[in-house]
UniProtKB/TrEMBL annotation:
PROSITE patterns: ABC_TRANSPORTER_2. GO terms for molecular function: ATP binding; ATP hydrolysis activity. Residues 7-232 form the ABC transporter domain. Belongs to the ABC transporter superfamily. This is ABC transporter ATP-binding protein.
Amino acid sequence: MAPQEILRFEKISKSFGSKRALDSVSFSVMEGEILGILGPNGAGKSTMMKIAAGTLEPEGGSIFLGGREMWMDYNARRKIAMVPQEHSFFGELTVLDNLIYFASQVGAAREKVAKYAAEFSLGPFLGKRAEELSGGYKRMLNICISLIQEPQIIFLDEPSVALDPVIRSELWEKIIELQKEGKTICISTHYMEEAQALCDRVCLINDGKIVALDTPDNLIKKFTISQIGTLTLKNPASAPLLCELAKQMHDTDISLNGTSVILRYRKKNPQLHEKAQLCLRTMGAEIIKSRLREADLEQAFINLTGHDLKGN
């Protein structure tokens, strides 16, 4: 069965003063998918999520949930939960008291509190003040609070920011489990690894506009070459040397960055990188470091926008 659309953005716009945060953004979210919203800080990711969650009103455009316009249907808006970067709990209360309080606000049974506390490894900390939790478990508590209302769609705003690798890996596992339970999940991130590891599709956003939306594999195939080689030389390469290298290396784009020769191979073949090294050595160049890596989402983003996910 083909995936069904569950949420649709139509020409959503939002400005803050003279800054255009979102510029006529349109796209669809499919039921049961993990959709990544990937872009640098200030690209419009958080603004998009706040509008979807109903905490920020757009200047123009509409959002449809299950074919119905959200702004006209309060019950529809309750089917979406937003997990912000900021802590959305009471720091002076215990973890258990926070969960009980937020459950009471949506009429949820106490059983749900126990269920989500166990699923998100909060059981040992129920009697602890929320402000005393580590950054990772504060993030887990944020997610638990959002799940108590049993949303269909969960927006996670930069969920892995400032988390250590162990907690980040645990959080990724929890997100995948939520998808298996039938939740639709949207993740904003500027971590390429997170988008590639978790997401069924990725929406690349830059300066408030969507520049591409597809599966990670398709984005890499469409907007990057196959492999990227870096050969760092002892001395800067001369123009004649680069010209001769270009003649011998077919299906390869060659550029220079300081003393490093960057080779973008259009075909996946490690022997091409070996050939490039042999060519340079034959011409008298001394290679002090060699690296070959697969093209990735960040390279696709760079090719589309001219800068990386840090905005450089």
